[in-house]
Amino acid sequence: MTDGLKHAYDLTFDCVQCGYCLPACPTYETMESETHSPRGRINLVKMVAEGKASVEDMEEPIEKCLGCMACTSVCPTNVQYGSILENAKEVLDESKQTGAVESFLFDDFIPSRRWMDRLGVATWLFQKSGADRIADRLPWKMPLHLEAFAGILPEMPSPAKRNERATRYMRKRPAVKKVGFFTGCIMDSVFFGSNESTIELLLRSGAEVVLPENQTCCGALHAHSGKKEKAIELAKQNIAAYEEEQFDYIVENAGGCGAQMIDYPSLFEEGTEWHERAVAFSSRVKDISEVLVEMDGLAFSKEVDQTVTYQPSCHMTYVQKVVEPPLELLRKVPGLQLEELERPGFCCGSAGVYNLVQHEDSMDVLDVKMEDVCRTGADQVVTSNPGCLLQMKLGIKREGMESEAVHLVDLLMEADPESRY
Ligand code: SF4
Ligand code: SF4
């Protein structure tokens, strides 16, 4: 038995089989089977470790887990499901031959700022050519259901606009805080405009903002795909990049990235130098909404006459445990009517690349979420994570709604906040 499987096996004994987690699990609700519930998955990992089931037997149930962590919020014995899941994924990853395309994606493409810039530029060209408007009517299918996303991407900035962005933003007046901004991969390539809004909100709140040049991908996709070694390598690079200056906060605007970076200490053995450095790093990681609330430097002046609902990211809710700050900010926007979801903690089905690699199952989960969204009658669906944002845009398109999906920072910019400092 590998160390990872042994660790997961030990953790499975905390599960007392009570089943309280079942109603919280989106895949249990949509797939209606014990195998696709948290308890079923935990039992399967235990059976694999005991030799009563094969590694292949656990592949489908584990791959179809969203990793949303809703189950951990209701578990009375605090079962470390996230750790069980990641170790199970590592076992699955080791049992398979990694193909050249997968190696390129995880080792070279995702962690490279250059490739992410190229993705942004390629999408800009795609939009300029008008191909995005007809992609879902083409007679052939794009890989990974990408045609479904073609018409819903935000307008990309031109390459010249991308190149204009600075790495340091100073205020004319003295800064109240110094912030290291984590730009992310998808946020910076697809939602570049939201990153610009984030920088602007931080400046108006009274912060000096630095974008460390050596930052890289947070490693969430790697960790959630069983590629722990690469996740550790990326964590080390980020920790070192943000040690180059003394920051009060390391700010991100993507729930999934924030959750991964807060969890960096778990990648290293306690008592080691890297563990200590990871603890120092993660203690300063904050979601943009937390920092805006803490700094309290914005005075919203313009009315936004809209009804909105807020779709929280699962990792922000269950890992970062940041729930109230986005709602608090929305309540401060004059004219805005906030209609909360009945089940905000139910995953939207995005879950990293789940909506690409498990597309049909993801759409089943999305359909449940959209019932709740439609009920609110919202003009705008606000969220704080690129995956949720794309998924909400897709849900709105599938439902034929008139609404829009926006990142929280872009909605806050609509209210044209003035600086109090
Ligand atoms: S992480 Fe989410 S999908 Fe996976 S078992 Fe837990 S609740 Fe279900
Ligand atoms: S709630 Fe916790 S203890 Fe109960 S079945 Fe689910 S994982 Fe096991």
UniProtKB/TrEMBL annotation:
It is an enzyme of class 1 (oxidoreductase). Residues 5-36, 55-79 form the 4Fe-4S ferredoxin-type domain. Its cofactor is [4Fe-4S] cluster. Its EC number is 1.1.99.14. Binds 2 [4Fe-4S] clusters. GO terms for molecular function: 4 iron, 4 sulfur cluster binding; glycolate dehydrogenase activity; metal ion binding. It catalyses: (R)-lactate + A = pyruvate + AH2; glycolate + A = glyoxylate + AH2. Keywords: 4Fe-4S, Electron transport, Iron, Iron-sulfur, Metal-binding, Repeat, Transport. Pfam families: CCG, Fer4_8. Component of a complex that catalyzes the oxidation of glycolate to glyoxylate. This is Glycolate oxidase iron-sulfur subunit. It comes from Halobacillus salinus.
